[in-house]
């Protein structure tokens, strides 16, 4: 549970919603405790008129240092997948379900910690606002945390991946997180599955266009 007086991002949202006002306001968010130890808020990036919105879990170590989403190892898998699926980076807005890096310190290393359900819920107003501003045609849901935030706790990525499901006025296509590709015992097979799901997302936009 969030602590008293620390009940989510909603009270930090600006009155007028656009990507600049959201980014600026999110920098001061204290909607859960994650802002205390992370370096900065890592807000989404991309054009306001992108047809694709990609949603990951939370910034990692490198994202926390650089202040941009998916600029580390997972981002390289994502970039490769987008290119091979024929999805133009100029048509993509990239963000995360949770905007601060959650980690435990082990000596000099900061070890990624999965955000709690309460943190995902606390951060959801930012994601909802990004969806409202960008109005993507297709939302690519990268892994279980993004799925929990966007599609509910009952959604199972393993069973429902690669199938477009309604999400407001958009369609969502879930797939595994690119970090899961990196961790998979058979990386080639995991990547092939990831790419197949991205191709479904690409095809969904072509049909909608
Ligand atoms: N993993 C994520 O889910 N998001 C990032 O931005 C980087 C790694
Ligand atoms: Fe706010 Fe989200 Fe950061 Fe928590 S993780 S402080 S809700 S921006």
Tell me the layout of helices and strands:
Blueprint: H1 19-26, E1 52-56, H2 61-66, H3 73-85, E2 92-96, E3 103-106, E4 109-112, H4 117-134, E5 138-142, H5 144-151, H6 157-160, E6 165-167, E7 170-175, H7 178-183, H8 187-208
Parallel strand pairs: 1-2, 1-5, 5-7
Antiparallel strand pairs: 3-4, 6-7
Helix pairs in contact: 3-8, 4-5
Bound molecules: uracil (URA) and iron/sulfur cluster.
Iron/sulfur cluster binds at residues 9, 26, 29-32, 34-35, 41, 98-100, 119, 122-123, 126.
Descriptive account of the structure:
This protein has 209 residues and is α/β, with parallel strands linked by helices. The protein has helices at 19-26, 61-66, 73-85, 117-134, 144-151, 157-160, 178-183, 187-208; strands at 52-56, 92-96, 103-106, 109-112, 138-142, 165-167, 170-175. It has 8 helices and 7 strands, in the order αβααβββαβααββαα. The strands form 2 sheets. It has a 5-stranded mixed beta sheet, sandwiched between helices. Strand 6 (165-167) and strand 7 form a beta hairpin. Helix 4 (117-134) packs across helix 5. The radius of gyration is 16 Å and the shape is globular. The mean pLDDT is 95. Residues 9, 26, 29-32, 34-35, 41, 98-100, 119, 122-123, 126 line the site of iron/sulfur cluster.
